Structure formats: C-alpha cells, structure tokens
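Task: complex structure prediction.
Instruction: return structure tokens for all chains below.
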Amino acid sequence: MRSFGLNEIWYMLQATQWTLYLSILTFVLGGSVGFFIALARCSRSRLLRAISGLYIQIFQSTPLLMQLFLIFFGLSLIGFRLPVLVAGSIALTFWASAFLGEIWRGCIEAVPEQQTEAADSLALTPWQQLRYVILPQASKIALPPTIGFFVQIIKNTSLTSIIGVTELMRASTNMNNATFEPMKVLAVASLIYFATCYPLSLISRKLENKLNVDH
Amino acid sequence: MSIIKINNLSKSFGNLEVLYNISFELEAGESLVLLGRSGSGKSTLLRCLNGLERVNTGDITVAGHKMDYESSKLRLLRNDVGIVFQQYNLFPHLTVAANIALAPRLVRKVSKSDALTLAKEVLGQVGLLEKIDAYPSQLSGGQQQRVAIARSLAMKPKVMLFDEVTSALDPELTGEVLDVMEKLAKSGMAMVVVTHEMAFAKKVSDRVIFLHNGRITETGNPDEIFSSPKTPEFKTFLGAVG
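Output:
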C-alpha cells in the first residue's frame, strides 16, 4: 500500500493539465457555438429565436451528468463508441454553449436600443450595426459573467471523471484507491481547484466593479 | 422644389391613433418647426420621415426618395436624411473622430484619411475640433449633442431632423446647440425641428406646424402664426409655454 506523498501530489498536478485543456477546449468550442446561439436568440426571425430558445432550454433544464451519459453510453448503445475525451468534450460543449448563449444574449440586449436606432439612422446594414456598434459594447458587458462562467466550466469538467477522463477528479479517485487517505487526497484536490478558480473569480469581480464605475 | 412631401399620412399604435391625415410640403433650404404638447405626435411624425416609425397609410417622399420600408431602399433614404436625438446616442466605445467617421467609412466607403478630413471639417462646423480624440463620456451634454450633429453632417445629408435635441440639456447648455442649428439653417440646410424652444421657432424657422391630438391644427410662417393664433388649442399652448 502506498502512502500519500509528493509523487502522488505530482500525479494529481499532471492530471490537472487535462482539467485545464478540457476547460479551454470547452470554452473555445462552447463559446463558438454559444456566440451563434446568442445571435440567433436576438435575431429578427421568429423561427431562429424559437429553435435557439429550445436548444438553451434543453441543455439548461437537464443535468450535465445526464448529457454526459447520453452522449457516451447512449451513443455507444447505437454503435458509436466515442473516446471518453471526445464524448466529454462534446457534452461539455453543448452544455457550455447553451449557458454562454443565454449569458451573451443578455449582454447584447443590455446595449440600449437607441444605439441600434442611431446606427440604423446612419444607414448601416444590420450586420455593420452588430459588428461595429452592438458587439463592441456587449463584449465589454460580457467579460465579467463570461470569466465567471469559465470557473463553472473548470469545476464541471470534474463530471467527466465518471465516464473515465483522467482529469484532476479522476486522478484523485485513483490516488484515494491506492492510498486510502481520502481526506488528504480530497484536500489537495480541493486546493488545486481553488487555486485555479479563485483568481479568476477575483478578476471577474474586479472587472464587474470597474464596469459599474464606468457607467 | 420640395424636399419633403407628405400626403395623407396616418399612423396608429394598435387602436391608438397618433397621427391623422397629415399633409405638408417643405421646400429645399427651408426649416420647419413642429410644435405641440407631449403626446401630440410631433416626435412620431419626425421619426416617420426617416422610417424609424412606419405609417399605416399615406405617401412620404424625402430628399427624392419615396418611402419604402424594404431595408436596402430605407438605407438609401437614410443616406440623405440625418437625425439627431434627444439623448445624443453617440457610440460610447468610439472616440469623437471614430463616431463621425464610422458611417462615411462603412456606408460611403470613404478612405480612412478622407474620413479624418471629413471629421475635422464637420467638427469645425460645430466648434469642437479640439475634442476630436475625446470619448463621449468626457464631454458635456451640449458638446455630445454637437458631436451628434457633426456625425449626421458627415453623411452630407440633404435634410436634417432634430428630435427635441435640447430637452435633455441644462438651460445653460441649450444655447450652444441652438446656435449650431441656427447656423445650419442659415447655410440653407433643410431641417425639421421638434422643439419646445419658442425663441428658436420664432427666430430661425421658415414655417411652423402646430400639432394637436395627431392633427395639424395650425400652420403658417412664424411671424403671423405667433402673433395671431387662430385656434383656441394653439392659443392655450402659446399661453402655457410663454
């Protein structure tokens, strides 16, 4: 039987890499999809609004864990056996895109309507209005909640441990099984999560205050 | 030649009729002031002139464009029709120069250096050349409104619309904005002005329309209309605003 020491902590830190890779991948992919979801939510087309609204509702109203199971176990039942990392990324991307889409919709709608009216009156096309007037202002509003949501992504990558992605949570379980020292192992794991997430939360809060002062 | 021609314009929001059977014409180079109490429909009428509000019936021709709500046709019209709002509506993330250059760059495809020259020219017109690199939040309300006027002028409009542009300003700041507008009127710009500034209406306008409950109740040149109001509504209005 192993005791819990530096080697074990090192192993967990190595696995933290995967937590971070998975988080960044989720953010980039989820953000890309979420951007179009947000645009669709603000679109003039009723159909696009309805479809994107349904998409958001589906992924916001079901547990991420269930989405993970459906994509990993569900797809393998009908013959698509995806590598765990791919299945985990796909599930996290769907989930993150729904939340980011809704967050960013709020940010786009927070830009006063008069801005659109002014841009409209200057004969800008709808796309130019979005690109040069609305999005620059919306992205400034979006920064704090987006960083805040990135923290949620980091924490929720831990769920992929259940389908077998060896990120920090899975590595901790492995170490616990090897050492039978759950308190030490979980304390170190928590500390690593905290050390990753807390600075981001701080930045998010700082930006939020700065933004409030600006107004 | 008339630069604005309105024929039998009517507009309602749901069941609420806000403009009824409005007809008038404005000659090039003239300035028209729209008067009326709040809720009389004057701002709505102004916003119908560049298609921000859609009418239910009636023909509108502005600066040679027949009103058509198809978006590319509407943009052609707005190319020639500037509007300035009560709340300035400058783009807060852009400098004064960028605020002014945006539409000429995107819509008129003016080069970067030409857009800068243009920005300097129109800022000179409103007397704010020294603020070219400032952000809107660094300017007073009066200055912001003058930049908003400059932004519209940069599109070389044939008609300018002003929607209560001094109503959000402190009294000591309204003067600088009205001066710019007076200069503009004297230079021969066709203007439609919604305002509560009676002095401006008397001094600058060529024509006044008084709206009451969405109808043109009285119209005429300022000399006769102010000295001998015919309808009791306009008399009451003049009594109230002094």
